[in-house]
Amino acid sequence: MSGSTLLALVAVFASASLMSFGGGNVVLPELHRQSVSIHGWLTDQQFAAVYAIAQGAPGPSTGLLAGLIGLRAAGWIGALAAAAAMLIPGAALMFGATLAWERFRAAPWRTAVEQGLAPISMGLLFAAGVIIVRAADHGWSAVLLTAVTTVVLAATRVNPLLVMAAAGLLGWLGLVR
Amino acid sequence: MSEPSPAGVASSAPRREGPVPLWALLWAFLKIAMASLGGGLSAWALRVIVEERRWLTEEEFLAALTLCRILPGPNQVNMAVYVGTRFRGLAGAAAALAGLTLLPLAIALGLGALYFGHRRTPGLQAAMTGLVAAAAGMTLSVGVKLGLSYMRRPVALALAVAAFVGVAVLRWPLLLVLGVLAPIAIAWYWPRGHAEHAGKPPA
Questions:
Q1: So what's the ipTM on this one?
Q2: What is the pTM of this model?
Q3: A50 near A72, Cβ under 8 Å?
Q4: Which of A13, A25, A31, B96 has the most CB within a 10 Å radius?
Q5: Eight-state DSSP code of residue A21
Q6: Do A120 and B181 touch (CB under 8 A)?
Q7: Residue B82 is inside which H or E element, if any?
Q8: Does B137 contact A153 at a Cβ distance shorter than 8 Å?
């Protein structure tokens, strides 16, 4: 591991952090280009595998992806440097934005912004669920499981963790494809 | 502005007042991160922050989520920073961010080390398929529940449907969808724009 690799990791992920308008998936093509084509930190196949790990593991997947690429490029220190570079610049910007937003707590226009943005956010949340189903490209049993989960969680007050555990068990038994 | 803000702002549940300890921020975002195994982070964040802890009303949460989407960075990282900053400033932001990221990072890097060490985990892959399917259902169920609460508010419902169609059907870039819809929505709910709505719940 060299200092220049660490510097390159920080540069790639810090700029990706500030470019990822609309969520982490926006910069995925750029991260692939940088880490596979330009720097050669991983192969195509390894990139696909760490993407799957980052998606499947709990937590914010873009930060996890950065950590995994850093791990391959420069070991454990590379992992921490890449994850921090991916998370901290965007978080610093959000910190400033929150302070500015909270200063206008009593302003009438803030109520208008909240009332206006809330339904849009709801529509986007629904879109996210549909996009996950489409991107996963699983078989009919997985789509059925998604439908059943949706109905059960919308219509009952059962703890979602129980539903998730049951779904994981069904998958582990090979019943979801 | 000396005008009073309009009464009757819709919100799902009353917000719980009082100080939020740092450990509670850390713990809440750790729970959100770990529960979202397979996806569905936004749905879990709403459940924990709005329904369980009652730190924000549903409307405050959703509006903040749109802010989190407009600014760069992963949405849930931004949400952790927003909630942490709002209640405890910089220390709160750090606590929430640590809760959201540290344990997941340890897990993902552990799995990555296993993968690069050339060990196979077929059972894990199969279980993940089930979890991803259920996580999509978790996200959709939140959409259904919130959508039902918008049934009596035609303007809000139309905005939600337009956002959904723009992103999921037309596949427009998010910034384009927000650039078109957000000004319309904010103008509609602007306090002085349409006085005839004063005193009534928002449409």
A1: 0.80
A2: 0.77
A3: yes
A4: B96
A5: B
A6: yes
A7: helix B75-116
A8: yes
